[in-house]
Recover the amino acids of this structure.
């Protein structure tokens, strides 16, 4: 792929074809973002928040930021296996582009789903708001690249208190050779006291190499509740970089469950800001890594106002030569008195060559708070293994049982009766593929 | 002569919420009075107001202790003058040994009385004697204040501290709650052992059963922030049989 | 110390030829401001160091000079830019203006000593009263020295060890903290002033805390302290650095390096109390303290523990670490750090598990009040070969007042599945209910705070040698003054 033009050249030839082209402010925004990216380049481990994830492997490869819009002719039959539930609203994106023919986005009471290309001026402004603003520029240069090339994605607006069917955004990659990048930009907005479930699914339809670079912005108004789920099950040769930027208003609640098990290299960044008093965030995540996968979950939870509550629970299971990363920063601003923030991360290493890097972080500037984090890394408890074996369970079965238990109660905690079985299906499939040998004591 | 504790028309609020509405009560030295009342009647508020907890504000009326108004005094000042509160939920202080905590407290009280401070040996001697009297394990001394104590142990620790600090007025806030019968007896025996002609005691309780072991001189019923009726020990039995409903209606 | 005539002559001969040549009188007490190759040569000549050590210093200097912008800024510390050319890098040990008796000493200082419970006999020495003029504890020191000599324990300034034990110094100096380890260690390697050297021979259990003696005699090691402690096979030593008494020093920048080496079955316990000048109530002045402390558990089953009580300095940048190389070796870090007024501390540890069956423990207690900012930053790394490594970390922060901050940044890197690493951290304030409980028992608010804080730190204070722990406890109380009201 030595013949790939430089990113600047790609941008020059692409920009007139990008959605919203011709709007002066948006053209300028894209150009400035590109200039920042050119200046800062790919983040390196010298950037504190990228300490454990090194992208130099992909930085030099040369990606096509404006791949041809045509995808393979996927049909409903290709979609069905990935569908959350038959009655959910569904927006399908193939190779980063919206496919109305495969989608079910009919407008219903309280729910409106559109794609980027159909967005109006106000929606474009909201979509374009830069994510990860709190980070230093070098840490968010891939989000800048996204801003420069963002091409499609979903705009979801939810109003009122009606009970709604879950909404699924399904991103299917089916690359036609080359090294395409899919710069996806989503916007999810909940009005006051609204309640919704939104699931983002990222899957690879075949084994080609590609890179998903997704940015999702979430706005939750006063008293609203969002149950947000991300399933990252990209193809084996994929790179997945995602940044979710969430703002939670007064007495609103944000639930996130993130399952990451696909891709060769993945980075799932979740930034949540509790911007008004009495807001709540509950984040949970499960990373299942094997082979030579490198899967990184990085969260930043900012308490900026009083009486906020946050709960975070993350688990990693790492096999073979895989490498999992969890970084979780919790910040409590001076005004955020009475904050109650807890975070737990646990990692299970299943093989001699597996590795985990963890960096939980507390930065606290208010004195009347209760904050804690905990991290534990290790193998299965030998006592538990022995106990099971002493009851006649074979070692491999005993290990499988304990691994399933390690994951299980996290999955049990997922809210929503469609989402939980959906995630469980993927987790069980992963567990089914575990190569558990009798290792001896 | 005024009583050891004279409460006159006491009105008090907690975080701006009025809880006590004109409570009047008199406890002479040498007597044990019980305050009984249903949940939410203001029992714990009364205890905290007497001890001077922040956020418990007297809006009207007077609290006279040994003839002097104490509402403006800091909690430690009252403690040093002989007011002791046995907490309903004794607080844990990790890392601080019971012995060093209590020695600091005893010496702070002694110092304010103009008595010489106890050195480590003298303190230990006194503490051991007291523990023996109250039939409490000596291990209490080396354990961190209330950390890892069972409910019963915490309450016994309060009685032990009361004995060591030698107060003139002891307020026991639901010291009987959460105790099994054996623990209750030990606590009651401790209280009885500490009855004295120059000491007044106020037992705050929801149930009558403590009063089977510690027979009070007077029983007062507190409902909706005021004393609605008073009587002898027999009043406690009546309450046990008939409940608080009649008094709540009266209030 | 006086230079031999030969050295002087040699120095004079070369000095004039230096590019930036300051032809300083070799008898000078103070090197001119600034750091050049000449400064390094000057320091080395002053100390009559052998050629290899001069070369070693120069290597460090050249490295430091080549990387002038490598001053680390990843810590959560804010301070004005340091002008490294505006500093004196050599000052002869001060002998001037010593008070002749306690009557001449600032009464404020004496009151603090009293609060800290420092034994009467030591107060004079700490206040800088000429030791031989006052007191016979020098004979105590002599007794210790005799005893140590009998056992073969070496305890001397490192500047003497360079001459008396050159093989040991040459073998181990820079073997744990290499010249290029970090900006400040490189600087220290170029210009280190003095410090302690300890060698404990095989099988010897050093019978005394190397403390009392040192407290009195090992002051004035200068701003670039360098300490090297070697515990040979099966030996044991407990070393105490610093002192609870407030230490005033007009040198703003301190960059110390401490290296510990424990061979098979050896154990080193290193305790520090740091109470340097923290600056005034408005954050003016105060020591900038950049310390590189690292121990290598080289031998099987060796043990190194660091215990520190940090209450002083305007800026503290310090991560006493252990390289767990030997199989079955054990590392520990126990820390209390208090930041009051405008103090900032970024401190923690690194536990690097390299050998099999290695264990480490981290207990860190950070207390912030006033505008203080307190960061725990620690790394636990389990390398691939480190079968059955174990680590437990507990990091707690206590915040007193609305303007301070407490931060916890642990890095955990595990490359071996048999490892078990656990980290827990909490941040909280002193509970209102705890304060009220103490006050109801007669303690003043200040006593209550100090009681609760001492309880909070107990796990760490317990790890200090006995008499030191008592002083440290009082030091904490003094450091908390002004926290309420």
């Amino acid at each position: 792929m030595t013949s790939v033009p430089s990113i600047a050249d790609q941008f020059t030839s692409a920009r007139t074809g990008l959605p919203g082209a011709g709007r002066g402010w948006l053209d300028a925004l894209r150009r400035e973002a590109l200039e920042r990216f050119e200046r800062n380049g790919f983040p390196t481990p010298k950037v504190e928040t990228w300490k454990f994830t090194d992208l130099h492997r992909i930085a030099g490869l040369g990606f096509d930021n404006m791949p041809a819009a045509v995808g393979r002719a996927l049909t409903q039959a290709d979609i069905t296996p990935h569908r959350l539930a038959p009655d959910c609203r569904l927006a399908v994106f193939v190779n980063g582009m919206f496919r109305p023919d495969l989608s079910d986005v009919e407008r219903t009471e309280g729910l409106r789903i559109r794609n980027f290309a159909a967005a109006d001026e106000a929606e474009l402004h909201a979509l374009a708001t830069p994510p990860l603003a709190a980070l230093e520029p070098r840490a968010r240069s891939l989000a800048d690249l996204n801003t420069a090339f963002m091409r499609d994605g979903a705009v979801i607006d939810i109003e009122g208190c009606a009970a709604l069917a879950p909404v699924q955004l399904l991103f299917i990659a089916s690359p036609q050779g080359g090294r395409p990048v899919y710069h996806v930009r989503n916007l999810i907005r909940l009005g006051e006291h609204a309640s919704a479930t939104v699931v983002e699914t990222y899957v690879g339809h075949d084994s080609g190499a590609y890179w998903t670079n997704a940015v999702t912005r979430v706005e939750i108004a006063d008293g609203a509740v969002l149950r947000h789920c991300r399933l990252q099950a990209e193809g084996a040769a994929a790179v997945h970089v995602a940044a979710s930027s969430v703002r939670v208003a007064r007495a609103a609640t944000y639930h996130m469950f993130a399952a990451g098990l696909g891709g060769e290299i993945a980075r799932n960044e979740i930034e949540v800001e509790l911007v008004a008093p009495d807001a709540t965030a509950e984040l949970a995540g499960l990373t299942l890594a094997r082979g030579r996968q490198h899967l990184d979950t990085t969260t930043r939870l900012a308490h900026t106002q009083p009486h906020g509550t946050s709960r975070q629970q993350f688990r990693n299971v790492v096999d073979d030569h895989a490498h999992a990363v969890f970084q979780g920063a919790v910040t409590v601003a001076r005004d955020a008195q009475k904050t109650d923030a807890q975070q737990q991360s646990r990692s299970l290493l299943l093989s001699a060559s597996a590795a985990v890097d963890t960096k939980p972080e507390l930065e606290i500037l208010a004195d009347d708070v209760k904050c804690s984090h905990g991290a534990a890394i290790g193998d299965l408890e030998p006592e538990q293994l022995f106990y099971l074996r002493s009851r006649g369970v074979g070692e491999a079965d005993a290990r499988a049982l304990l691994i399933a238990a390690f994951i299980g109660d996290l999955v049990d905690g997922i809210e929503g009766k469609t989402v939980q079985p959906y995630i469980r299906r993927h987790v069980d499939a992963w567990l089914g593929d575990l190569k558990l040998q009798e290792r001896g004591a | 002569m005024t009583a050891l504790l004279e409460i006159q028309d006491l009105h008090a609020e907690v975080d701006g919420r009025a809880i006590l509405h004109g409570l009047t009560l008199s406890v002479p030295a040498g007597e044990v009075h019980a305050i009984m009342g249903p949940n939410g009647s203001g029992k714990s508020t009364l205890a905290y107001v007497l001890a001077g907890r922040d956020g418990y504000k007297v809006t009207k009326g007077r609290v006279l202790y040994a003839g002097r108004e104490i509402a403006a005094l800091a909690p430690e000042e009252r403690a040093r003058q002989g007011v002791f509160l046995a907490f309903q939920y004794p607080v844990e202080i990790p890392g601080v040994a019971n012995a060093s905590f209590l020695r600091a407290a005893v010496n702070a009280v002694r110092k304010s009385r103009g008595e010489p401070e106890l050195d480590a040996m003298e303190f230990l001697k006194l503490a051991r004697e007291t523990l023996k009297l109250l039939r409490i394990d000596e291990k209490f001394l080396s354990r961190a204040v209330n950390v890892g104590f069972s409910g019963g142990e915490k309450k016994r620790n309060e009685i032990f501290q009361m004995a060591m600090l030698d107060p003139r007025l002891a307020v026991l806030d639901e010291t009987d709650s959460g105790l099994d019968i054996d623990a209750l007896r030990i606590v009651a025996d401790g209280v009885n052992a500490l009855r004295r002609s120059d000491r007044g005691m106020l037992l705050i309780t929801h149930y009558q059963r403590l009063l089977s072991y510690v027979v009070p001189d007077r029983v007062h019923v507190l409902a909706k922030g005021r004393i609605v009726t008073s009587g002898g020990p027999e009043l406690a039995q009546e309450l046990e049989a008939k409940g608080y409903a009649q008094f709540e209606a009266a209030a | 110390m006086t230079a031999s005539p030969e050295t002087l002559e040699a120095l004079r001969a070369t000095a004039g030829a230096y590019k930036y040549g300051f032809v300083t009188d070799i008898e000078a007490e103070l090197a001119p401001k600034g750091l050049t190759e000449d400064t390094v040569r000057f320091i080395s000549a002053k100390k009559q160091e052998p050629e290899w050590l001069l070369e070693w210093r120069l290597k460090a200097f050249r490295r430091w000079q080549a990387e002038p912008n490598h001053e680390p800024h990843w810590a959560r510390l804010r301070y004005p830019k340091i002008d490294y050319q505006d500093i004196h890098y050599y000052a002869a040990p001060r002998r001037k203006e010593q008070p002749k008796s306690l009557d001449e000493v600032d009464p404020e200082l004496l009151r603090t000593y009293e609060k800290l419970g420092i034994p009467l006999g030591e107060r004079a020495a700490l206040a800088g009263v000429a030791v031989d003029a006052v007191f016979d504890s020098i004979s105590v020191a002599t007794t210790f020295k005799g005893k140590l000599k009998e056992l073969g324990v070496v305890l001397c300034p490192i500047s003497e060890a360079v001459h008396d034990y050159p093989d040991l110094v040459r073998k181990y100096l820079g073997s744990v903290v290499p010249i290029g380890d970090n900006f400040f260690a490189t600087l220290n390697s170029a210009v280190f002033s003095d410090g302690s050297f300890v060698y404990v021979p095989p099988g010897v259990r050093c019978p005394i805390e190397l403390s009392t003696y040192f407290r009195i005699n090992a002051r004035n090691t200068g701003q670039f302290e360098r300490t090297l402690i070697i515990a040979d096979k099966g030996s044991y030593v407990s070393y105490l650095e610093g002192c609870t008494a407030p230490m005033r020093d007009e040198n703003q920048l301190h960059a110390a390096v401490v290296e510990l080496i424990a061979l098979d079955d050896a154990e080193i316990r290193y305790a520090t109390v740091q109470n340097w000048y923290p600056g005034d109530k408005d954050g003016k002045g105060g020591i900038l303290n950049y310390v590189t402390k690292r121990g290598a558990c080289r031998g099987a089953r060796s043990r190194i523990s660091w215990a520190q009580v940090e209450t002083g300095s305007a800026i503290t940048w310090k991560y006493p670490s252990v390289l767990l190389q030997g199989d079955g070796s054990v590392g520990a870090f126990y820390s209390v750090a208090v930041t009051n007024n405008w103090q900032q501390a970024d401190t923690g540890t690194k536990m690097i598990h390299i050998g099999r069956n290695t264990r480490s423990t981290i207990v860190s207690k950070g207390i912030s009040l006033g505008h203080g900012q307190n960061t725990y930053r620690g790394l636990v790394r389990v390398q691939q070969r480190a079968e059955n490594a174990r680590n437990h970390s507990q990091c707690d922060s206590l915040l007193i007042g609305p303007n301070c901050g407490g931060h916890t940044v642990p890095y955990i890197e595990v490359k071996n599945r048999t490892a078990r690493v656990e980290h827990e951290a909490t941040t909280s304030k002193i509970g209102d209910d705890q304060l009220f409980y103490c006050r109801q028992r007669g303690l003043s608010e200040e006593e209550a705070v100090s009681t609760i804080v001492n309880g909070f730190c107990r796990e760490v204070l317990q790890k200090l040698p006995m008499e030191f722990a008592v002083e440290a406890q009082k030091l904490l109380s003094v450091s908390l003054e002004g926290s309420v009201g």
The two ends of chain C are 52 Å apart (CA to CA).
